[in-house]
């Protein structure tokens, strides 16, 4: 199974900051990566798919990049409502579909 | 609008069984693959199963293979997860999730159902 490693596991940033975090795949997965946002007590929400395509209704401050084994999710101008845990998921080789361990974003 | 409404969670003893349901609306259910994803308390997400639009293809994570069975009733716009031989490490919130179709990602999720396996 393809393993996804997210870093950092948590970060703290101020409103308005540009924040980025990483997802590394154990083998090349082309652009077959998605990002989800999960707020406490809620189901995940799809943000990005195919590494850089924005899902419907997602604010343009979210962007994704990467190819192969290295991927990045960037929030350009952190907002209070962005407090959440962010997960990456690969869909290049399955089953199983796999998720990273998550990056928790706190607001300073 | 797309909705996935889950039911069926609860407390069950080790070795017991439970069936989760997920009723869909707002999209062409009979043309959509569906998934189950779970999240143990305080932990990350784990994909556990998918089923094709017709039900002819199913797959499972190794952790549930042989114990869980996914099925669907397209006439009732519903997908099910039958969980047998439950163990303490199956304790989690279980989500049904709609497959986006052109990509194997999950564009809509149910509200989740808590399954607690404890004596």
Q: How would you characterize this protein structure?
A:
- The complex is a heterodimer of chains A (108) and B (119).
- Chain A is mostly beta strands and 108 residues long.
- Chain A has strands at 4-7, 10-13, 18-25, 33-38, 45-49, 53-54, 62-67, 70-76, 84-90, 98-99, 103-107.
- In chain A, the strands form two sheets. In chain A, strands 2, 4, 5, 6, 9, 10 and 11 form a seven-stranded mixed sheet that branches. Chain A has a four-stranded antiparallel sheet with strand order 1-3-8-7, with no helix packed on it.
- Chain B is mostly beta strands and 119 residues long.
- In chain B, strands 2, 4, 5, 6, 9, 10 and 11 form a seven-stranded mixed sheet that branches. In chain B, strands 1-3-8-7 form a four-stranded antiparallel sheet, with no helix packed on it.
- In chain B, β7 (68-73) and β8 (78-83) form a beta hairpin.
- At the A-B interface, β4, β5 and β10 of A face β5 and β10 of B.
Topology of helices and strands:
The complex is a heterodimer of chains A (108) and B (119).
Chain A: E1 4-7, E2 10-13, E3 18-25, E4 33-38, E5 45-49, E6 53-54, E7 62-67, E8 70-76, E9 84-90, E10 98-99, E11 103-107
Parallel strand pairs in A: 2-11
Antiparallel strand pairs in A: 1-3, 3-8, 4-5, 4-9, 5-6, 7-8, 9-10, 9-11
Chain B: E1 3-7, E2 10-12, E3 18-25, E4 34-39, E5 45-51, E6 58-60, E7 68-73, E8 78-83, E9 92-99, E10 106-109, E11 113-117
Parallel strand pairs in B: 2-11
Antiparallel strand pairs in B: 1-3, 3-8, 4-5, 4-9, 5-6, 7-8, 9-10, 9-11
